[in-house]
Amino acid sequence: MSNLEKTLSIIKPDAVERNLTEQIKSIFLSNGFKILNEKKLQISKNEAEQFYLVHQSKPFYNDLCSYLSSGPIVVMILEKENAIKHNRDLMGATNPKDAKLGTIRKQFGLSIDKNSVHGSDSLENATLEIEFFFKD
Ligand code: CMP
Q1: Does domain 4-134 have CATH number 3.30.70.141?
Q2: What is the value of pTM for the model shown?
Q3: Ligand 1 atom at minimum distance from 63 CA
Q4: Which of 2, 7, 49, 128 minimizes the number of CB atoms within 10 Å of its CB?
Q5: Hey, whose CA ends up nearest to atom 14 of ligand 1?
Q6: pLDDT in tens, 69-123
């Protein structure tokens, strides 16, 4: 059965700063994702706090929000069959140290914070995150 999904992907400040945007986009494209929409922007700390609200109670919340707002990011809507899971598999484990060979975080991630990419973790969050960045 067909299950075409959309997911939100973010190329984080560490990767944008190292000019990895085109390389990371080409990994998505060669793995069968369509990039339906994309934009480069820098968000405020307050916007990052809204975006990562699900992590509000975590000890790393403040650093995480400071980091995501520290420089330009590229946000994309990716589409593919089972896009949410496929994107998470392609990104690899949150901590690049634990990520498998061939994953984006293994290849480019610097640390658990500077892990180069974000991807929605559920259908519900994908909808909310796409709405957050592409409401108009
Ligand atoms: P991301 O997929 O963007 O979602 C939340 C982010 O919090 C995660 O990637 C990591 O970069 C960051 N983070 C920092 N510390 C931790 C931690 N201990 N566990 C999970 N995520 C963490």
Answers
A1: yes
A2: 0.97
A3: 14
A4: 2
A5: 113
A6: 999 999 999 999 999 999 999 999 999 999 999 999 999 999 999 999 999 999 9
